[in-house]
Specification:
The chain contains 16 helices and 7 strands. The chain is an alpha+beta fold and about 350 residues long.
């Protein structure tokens, strides 16, 4: 039995979340930007950053015309930095073609737009009758139909089942609202922990709730342990207290972002002699700072140590000199954790919270 679309839409009409990108629900640029930012990031973290990004780049044309350095600066702290590179490349393609395509297939062909994002933009911006499968929709679907097969293997089945709900007349009349209602149901009622089943408009149709297993769904296959990698970085300051930063290569992790100079990251670690070959200046007063900076990436854990030195007068070093406040604003989360070490050592005046997570799940 299909869960009734009219009941979900009636609930949504009363309880929909007030999200800023819904204020102009037919603007594909704003919807696209929100969907890219929301990948692996919470609504609470994205909302102020979305507003700020939109103020700086108010249209897809403005984003396309902006230099990469400006886009990277505005993205700093949001994590998963390949998203920013793809965002910039996609904006240029859209600007060249004169606007966004209005089909899921056309959107899928754009740089950096995957199946989920294409479906989300297609449904929300262009009323295409397609259900994007995000974490909220996965959870709602698994619980409603008591699907005990673990993720990620269950995803194709869950996607097909969720798409089947769109066949109802009420859903096809309001595809954008139906999709956003599913998102809101998962985010506010059918939550990962302690779902509010008594308030759910689909409670009577939920097989998981009826069987008493809803809260434990969807099941997830055990994760393999992530490898540990290590790196050594260098904090060089000048007489004015500015910090030397270098832009990382355009591809790879944190590609195109500013960072503290340092070694590559590898599992076997670094000897002092090996690490010093990557120092940004041949000055004799490099000193190690206590502690280590820790950061979790999707596929590995990272541990970094930091050496600090003051630049001698007249030193010429490749890179950009930024004040500590400007550096904190420009650096990605992994590099901010290095500045936290420097702050604890009294070198940087505005340390950041090393325990703060910049890449929380959506």
């Amino acid at each position: 039995m299909l869960p009734p679309a009219p009941a979900l839409l009636a609930w949504y009409d009363r309880h929909r979340r007030a999200l800023p990108w819904r204020e102009a629900a037919r603007d594909p640029y704003r919807i696209w930007l929100s969907e890219v930012m929301l990948q692996q990031t919470t609504v609470a973290a994205v909302t102020p950053r979305w507003r700020r990004f939109l103020a700086r780049f108010p249209s897809v044309g403005a984003l396309a015309a902006a230099p990469w350095e400006a886009v990277a600066e505005e993205w700093a702290g949001l994590g998963y930095y390949a998203r920013a590179r793809n965002l910039h490349a996609c904006a240029r393609t859209v600007a060249e073609r004169g606007g966004f395509p209005d089909t899921v297939e056309g959107l899928r062909a754009l740089p950096g737009i995957g199946a989920y994002t294409a479906a989300a933009i297609g449904a929300i911006a262009f009323d295409r009758p397609v259900v994007p499968l995000d974490g909220n929709v996965e959870r709602v679907t698994a619980r409603l139909l008591a699907i005990e097969e673990p993720l990620p293997g269950a995803r194709p089945r869950l996607a097909a089942l969720a798409q089947g709900w769109m066949e109802q007349a009420a859903a096809r009349e309001r595809p954008a609202d139906f999709v956003q209602a599913l998102f809101d149901l998962g985010a506010t009622i059918c939550t990962p922990r302690n779902p509010a089943c008594a308030l759910c408009p689909w409670r009577d149709s939920c097989l998981g709730q009826r069987a008493g297993i809803a809260a434990g769904l969807p099941r997830k296959a055990p994760r393999a342990a992530r490898p540990l990698k290590r790196g050594v970085h260098f904090l060089l300051t000048d007489a004015a207290g500015r910090i030397l930063l270098r832009r990382r290569p355009p591809t790879g992790l944190l590609g195109g972002m500013l960072g503290l100079p340092g070694t590559p990251w590898r599992e076997e670690g670094w000897t002092e002699t090996e690490a010093m070959a990557f120092a940004p200046a041949a000055t004799p007063n490099w000193r190690p700072l206590p502690g280590e900076a820790r950061h979790g990436f999707t596929h590995f854990e990272l541990r970094m140590t930091l050496l600090a030195a003051e630049a001698p007068p007249g030193l010429v070093a490749e890179g950009e000199w930024l004040s500590p406040d400007a550096a904190i604003a420009a650096l990605p989360g992994a590099m901010q954790r290095l500045l936290a070490l420097a702050g604890e050592a009294g070198i940087v005046a505005s340390p950041v919270d090393q325990d703060a997570r910049t890449d929380p799940p959506r």
